[in-house]
From TrEMBL:
Lineage: Bacteria, Bacillati, Actinomycetota, Actinomycetes, Pseudonocardiales
ATPase BadF/BadG/BcrA/BcrD type domain segment(s): 8-304
Protein name (database record): ATPase
Pfam families listed in its UniProt record: BcrAD_BadFG
Length: 338
């Protein structure tokens, strides 16, 4: 069998699958719904991954009776603890997509997509927030990233909930006036935020906090102090995640990469990046801080190519297959049911 890597980026809101050969040539890429096994259940989550993987194999012209790849590199949101990574590795191995399997947290894929070696610190702020640090000698630093119980703050969902919380308190008098209130009323098409709350309570309106996060940044950008205070708190958290990892690994004096990614980061421009960069450089003056919007699935594929010992030219070919960070091949949508 020609060496191939099956790369999976399993996020909370979407799943991306990339099939590449050992030379870094893109054979197929498909996308589908988010299906974190820890959230939707192991079987359903892996059924979604398998549907996408099989679709990629068909697009690549593979025979149904041959393994999809030599190696599967699955980097998943929700694979936050070693125990979870071990369970997922066993479950994916049993599916028989490839002879070898590596499962890791999706922050590792972000770090690899933004670096030439996978060394440095990556902070992802999308649906949730997390970070990872990797030193040149292989040492790693991670956070549990289990939400409130593990000290987390941030992520698109959390920011959206905060925006609604502030709007409610502005209307009922418990909080300071804020332009978040009229902005959210316009979003929901209501004249009172308490009406929105009542409809949310009775599930007459779907609550999608991730949709409120961009509104928070938009209002903050217009000079609203209340919304800006939340953005400032997010900046503080991203700086903490970055600098704690740098300190734990002894990298504060090194010319190290600090890469930021996820929907919140890529959608806010300099609003978050500018102050984060300035404050990280106060701690680690040689650091290179930037947002990476290359799809994390590319980082997963690069980690897979590293595992099979692909040549440096394979990385160059894979990266060059992306124009304006969009895959060459059209994606295929797969229903959430798998």
């Amino acid at each position: 069998m020609t060496d191939r890597v099956l790369a999976i980026d399993g996020g909370n809101s979407k799943t991306a699958v990339l099939l590449v050969d050992a030379d870094g040539k893109v054979l197929a890429q498909v996308r589908g719904p988010g299906a974190p096994p820890q959230t939707v259940g192991m079987k359903r989550g892996l059924d979604v991954f398998e549907g996408l993987a099989r679709e990629a194999a068909v697009l690549a012209g593979l025979s149904p009776d041959e393994p999809i790849a030599t190696h599967t590199a699955a980097y998943l949101a929700g694979a936050d603890l070693p125990r979870e990574e071990e369970e997922l590795t066993r479950a994916i191995t049993e599916r028989g997509w490839s002879p070898s399997v590596v499962v890791g947290n999706d922050t590792f894929a972000l770090l690899r997509s933004g670096t030439a070696s996978g060394v440095g610190v990556a902070v992802v702020c999308g649906a949730g927030i997390n970070a990872v640090g990797v030193a040149a000698d292989g040492r790693t630093h991670r956070f549990p990233a289990l939400g409130q119980i593990s000290g987390d703050w941030g992520g698109g969902g959390h920011l959206g909930e905060k925006a609604l919380w502030l709007a409610v308190r502005a209307e009922d008098g418990r909080g300071a006036p804020t332009e978040l209130l009229p902005a959210l009323l316009a979003h929901y098409g209501e004249t009172s935020i308490l009406t929105v709350v009542e409809k949310l309570h009775f599930q007459e309106v779907q609550f999608d906090p991730h949709a409120l996060s961009p509104i928070l940044f938009e209002v903050a950008g217009r000079g609203d102090a209340v919304a800006q205070s939340v953005v400032d708190r997010l900046v503080e958290e991203v700086v903490l995640l970055s600098t704690v990892s740098l300190r734990k690994l002894g990298l504060v004096g090194e010319p190290v990469d600090v890469v930021l990614g996820g929907g919140v980061m890529t959608g806010t421009g300099e609003t978050v990046l500018g102050p984060v960069r300035a404050r990280v450089l106060e701690v680690a003056p040689l650091a290179r801080v930037r947002v990476v919007d290359l799809p994390p699935v590319v980082g997963a594929a690069l980690l897979g190519l590293d595992t099979i010992g692909a040549s440096p030219g394979a990385e160059l070919r894979l990266r060059s297959a992306y124009d304006d960070h969009l895959p060459v091949q059209a994606s295929v949508e797969v229903a959430a049911g798998g």
